[in-house]
Write a structure and sequence with these properties.
Elements (H helix, E strand, L loop, with lengths): L1 H21 L3 H8 L10 H11 L2 H7 L4 H20 L3 H24 L5 H25 L4 H26 L11 H21 L10 H30 L19
Amino acid sequence: MEIAATSTFLGLLIMLFSCFVAGRNPDLIERARRHPTPTGVLPEIAIDFGYWLLRPFLGMFRFVNMTPNTLSLLSLPASIAAAMTIGMGRFGFGGPLLLLAFGLDAWDGLLARETAVATDAGEVVDATLDRFNDVVVMLGFLYYYRLDVVPWLLAGAALAGTVVVSYARAKGQAFGIDPNFGYFQRHERALCLAVAATFAPAIAMLGGEPMEHPRYYAVVLALGAVAVGTNITAVSRASFVIKRLRTPAIIPGDSPVVSSIVPRP
C-alpha cells in the first residue's frame, strides 16, 4: 500500500510541476514570496514551485477565517502524527504527513503577510512551535533506528544541528546580528527528510532491502546530509556572530577606542 501511495504522490507531483512550468507567473510568485530567499541548497525554481503550490490555499483559509496562529498550532499535531508514523516504520505515510506539517508552517507566514496581520507575538508562537516540530520529527527517526547504530547517530547529530543552528541565529538576533545564511535551513531540512521518507519504501523495494525493518538508505543519506549541513551552518553562524561582536562598529568621523584603561602619568 505504501508503494501505491508513493507512486500516486510522484505522479501527482510530476503533473503539478508540469503545470507550474507551463504557466509560471513570476509576478504572482514574487507577491507570494515578499522576502528575499536565503542562500541554501534548493534551486530557485524549486522554491518558486513551493510558493506556487501553497498560494491557492490562502483564499480558502481567508474564507473560513483561519488565522496564522491556528495554522501554526495545527502543524504540531501533524508533526506528531508524522513522527509516530515514521517511528512505526511507515515511511511512505510519514513523509506526506511531514510535508503537510511543513505546509501548515509555511502557510501561516504567507497568510500573515497576505492579510497584514503579522505580529511579534505571532512570530514567537511560530518560532516556538517550529522548535517543537523539529524535535518531535527527529525523535521519530531516532526511535525507528534505535537498534541501528550508524543511522541512530546520524539522526542524533541531525537533531543537535537542527537545535543549535536555530539557537545560533536567535542568539545573534538578540545582539542585532542576523546570520541568516547556510545550508539546510528549516524548509530545506523538512523537504529533504519528507521526500526521502516518502520515496524510501519504493527505493528499498527496488534495492532489494529486507521487508522486515528495512534500513531505508534514502533516509539514512538524508539524515547524514542534514547532520553535516546543519552542524556546519551552526558553527558558521556562531563564528560569524562572535567575529562581529569582537569587531566593534566604528561610526564615520569617530576614533576607535584603543583601550578603556588609561595609564597613570
